[in-house]
Design brief:
Number of helices: 4
Helix content: 55-70%
Distance between the termini: 105 Å
Strand content: 5-15%
CATH superfamily of the largest domain: Endolytic murein transglycosylase
Number of strands: 2
Largest sheet: 2 strands, antiparallel
CATH class of the largest domain: Alpha Beta
Oligomer: single chain
Length: about 120
């Protein structure tokens, strides 16, 4: 009789212990599930920020020859990807310090520079 009671408690405690272990593992997984699911998204966002920063810091080496006309300069800068609209650039360039000439030489210009800042460098 004692053997049966003893066996019952052994089995009972084994089952309780197994339930506690499974419950503990389930609790740990449940509390960290949000972290585990969003882990990939955080890496993607971090990579996107790094790529944006690299794009901001990209300097383009531009060589402007002597006696260049504004139309040719617009074509040159568009080929480097520094401007999008040649006509708009030419208009702003011609309106900015009409008496000054275009600076020539080698320039290191940020790839995302504003058009007004670009004109200030070149005039």
């Amino acid at each position: 009789m004692w053997e049966k009671i003893k066996d019952f408690f052994y089995y009972f405690f084994d089952i309780i212990l197994a339930i506690l272990i499974i419950g503990g593992i389930s609790f740990i997984i449940y509390t960290n599930l949000d972290y585990l699911i969003n882990l990939d998204h955080k890496d993607i966002n971090a990579n996107a920020q790094v790529e944006e920063k690299k794009e901001e810091d990209l300097l383009i080496d531009v060589d402007i020859p002597k006696d260049i006309k504004s139309e040719d300069l617009a074509i040159l800068l568009e080929s480097y990807g520094l401007i999008n609209d040649k006509k708009d650039f030419e208009d702003k360039l011609n309106n900015y310090k009409k008496d000054s000439e275009i600076n020539t030489g080698n320039f290191k210009i940020k790839s995302n520079i504003a058009m007004d800042d670009l004109i200030k460098i070149l005039k």
